[in-house]
Write a structure and sequence with these properties.
Elements lengths: L2 E3 L2 E3 L2 E3 L6 E5 L6 E6 L3 H16 L9 H16 L2 H12 L3 H8 L2 H14 L4 E5 L6 E8 L2 E5 L5 H15 L2 E5 L8 H11 L6 E3 L4 H8 L6 E5 L2 H14 L3 E4 L5 E4 L7 H12 L12 E5 L3 H14 L18 H16 L3 E4 L15 E4 L6 H4 L6 E7 L2 H9 L3 E2 L3 E3 L3 H10 L6 E2 L10 E2 L1 E2 L2 E2 L1 E2 L3 H4 L2 E8 L1
Parallel strand pairs: 1-5, 8-9, 8-11, 9-10, 11-12, 13-14, 13-19, 14-17, 16-17, 19-20
Antiparallel strand pairs: 2-3, 4-5, 6-7, 7-25, 12-23, 15-16, 18-22, 21-24
Helix pairs in contact: 2-5, 2-6, 2-7, 3-4, 5-6
The protein binds nicotinamide-adenine-dinucleotide.
Length: 482
């Protein structure tokens, strides 16, 4: 059965698109067509921005509500999304190949959890404070007002969570939005649109425009939006930053990564105890997760043991159809992406890295599979250690002491995630503190709603998550009382 959306969610309901062009969505596991979605054109983006603008500018509308009133709607929105959890997991996995165990644990639950968290943030939000001027002793009112209409652009790898990373704090702040999902994953956001309507989100507060990068570019440069929130590749982030720079438009950018998993010489390498965490920090969603530690830094004294551990981990994982609950490694999200990942595997071999395991397609006769692939004897200068592959390909790099491990970790264009593996928390903290990155875990981590998530260097600008994220959707104003 295929899923069809022949209308667009604009202005609080499903409306006719301006053209009959559609996006065909294909299963990454079976290569079969699983749905089709009306493709937004520039006129539809204009209509969506108009709807968001009207909703934002309404003198009694969403932006003017007390945060606690918005929080009530956000909680209803969370309930409506949660009730669609199994469908969300199913659609995400069918589209992008994320193992359904992972989409059920993350994609189906994170959006509602984030909405509830930010509803709580909204309830406690201080949007106005009085200060006494140091010079004149007068009263100055400092306000945090909603920033305006947000253009939110989302990638295909965690389409639900990464959309919620944006709309949950934006709604708490009082913004309205136009969300552009990726063409590869535009079936699942239809469920969010239905949930928004069911929850009574006022018309125009959330609008969805499925389309490719041209439609994204039209949204980014649109004269009637006030802010861009982007997650995606560093290349696209750079071009969006250029446009926003010219327009002096606020932008948050969550971009690519090439994070280091630093195994210290006292690390527990027993897969029975650390295997699940190692998997979650190096190969989750077959490496199509931005904060994965794809450069594994291993101490020379235990190098062979680390190689054996990762070879055993890779070899133990079940490859298969993303909708099979037993699957741990699904396919790449598209054939183009599979080709790209295979190109890096070829490059790794050509540059002299030692292929320990993987490199093939896992014996699958359909779907865009790449086996978990472990390269040893990798020099940090190799292409496979410097460029983001975004697949299940790990580079094992040898180091001699903690100083050198930190130096190699920081010898990267990126600074997004990372992990330090040790039985000594204090030592782990010492190393983690010196790694130039936005997020890092001692013996692994997954992003938590309570704490900011973002990148440094070429991994991005600004943070999502945590109470801090709301500030990116607010405009600060000082009103002087003279
Ligand atoms: P991508 O940059 O190709 O596309 C991301 C989104 O941006 C898509 O919706 C796409 O249509 C749109 N887009 C592309 N170019 C655009 C442009 N010039 N103007 C406006 N919109 C544009 O990325 P992808 O392949 O979909 O996703 C994978 C990338 O996302 C990886 O690099 C990954 O590291 C990154 N990512 C980062 C984070 C993070 O939090 N830092 C999280 C997940 C993914």
């Amino acid at each position: 059965m295929t899923i069809t959306y022949d209308k667009l969610f604009i202005g609080g309901g499903w409306t006719d698109p301006s053209s009959d062009r559609t996006i065909t969505v294909v299963s990454a596991s079976t290569e079969e067509v699983i749905g089709s979605v009306a493709e937004a054109q520039e006129a539809d983006v204009d209509a969506a921005v108009d709807a968001a603008r009207t909703a934002f500018d309404d003198p009694n509308g969403w932006a003017t509500w007390e945060p606690a009133r918005r929080a009530e709607v956000m909680e209803r929105f969370a309930d409506a999304i949660e009730s669609r959890g199994p469908d969300i997991a199913q659609r995400v996995s069918a589209q992008n190949g994320m193992p359904i165990a992972i989409s059920s644990a993350f994609e189906a639950t994170f959006p509602a959890a984030l909405l509830r968290y930010y509803a709580g943030v909204a309830r406690n939000m201080v949007t106005e404070e009085q200060r006494t001027g140091l010079v004149a002793g007068n009263t100055i009112t400092v306000r945090r007002d909603p920033l305006g209409v947000v253009g939110a652009i989302v990638p295909w790898n965690f389409p639900q969570s990464l959309a919620a990373f944006k709309y949950a704090p934006a709604l708490a702040a009082g913004c309205t939005m136009v969300i552009k999902p990726s063409p590869e994953t535009c079936l699942d956001l239809g469920l969010i649109a239905d949930a928004a309507a069911e929850a009574g989100l006022p018309a125009g507060v959330i609008n969805v425009v499925p389309g490719g990068r041209e439609i994204g570019a039209h949204l980014v440069a649109h004269p009637r939006i006030d802010k861009v929130a982007f997650t995606g590749s560093t290349a696209a982030g750079r071009s969006i930053a250029e446009v926003c720079g010219r327009l002096l438009r606020p932008v948050t950018l969550e971009l690519g990564g090439k994070s280091a998993a630093i195994i210290l010489d006292d690390a527990d390498l027993d897969l029975g105890t650390v295997g699940a965490n190692l998997f979650q920090n190096t190969l989750l969603n077959q490496g199509q997760t931005c904060f994965m530690g794809t450069r594994v830094l291993a101490p020379a004294s235990r190098y062979d043991e680390v190689v054996d551990t990762f070879a055993a981990l890779a070899g133990s994982l079940t490859i298969g159809d993303a909708l099979d609950p037993g699957t741990q490694i699904g396919p790449m999200a598209s054939s183009t992406h599979r080709d790209r990942v295979e190109g890096y595997i070829a490059k790794g071999k050509a540059e002299g890295a030692r292929l320990v395991t993987g490199g093939g397609r896992g014996g699958q006769d359909r779907g865009w599979f790449v086996e978990p692939t472990i390269f040893a004897d990798v020099d940090n200068k190799f292409t496979i250690a410097q460029e983001e592959i975004f697949g299940p390909v790990l580079s094992l790099i040898k180091y001699n002491d903690d100083e050198e491990a930190v130096r190699i970790a920081n010898d990267s264009e990126f600074g997004l995630g990372g992990s330090v593996w040790t039985q000594d928390q204090a030592r782990g903290l010492g190393v983690a503190t010196r790694v130039q990155t936005g997020n890092i875990g001692i013996n692994g981590f997954v992003p938590d709603p309570s704490s900011p998530f973002g990148g440094v260097k070429a991994s991005g600008l600004g943070q999502e998550l945590g109470p801090e994220a709301v500030h990116h959707y607010q405009q600060i104003k000082s009103i002087y009382n003279t």
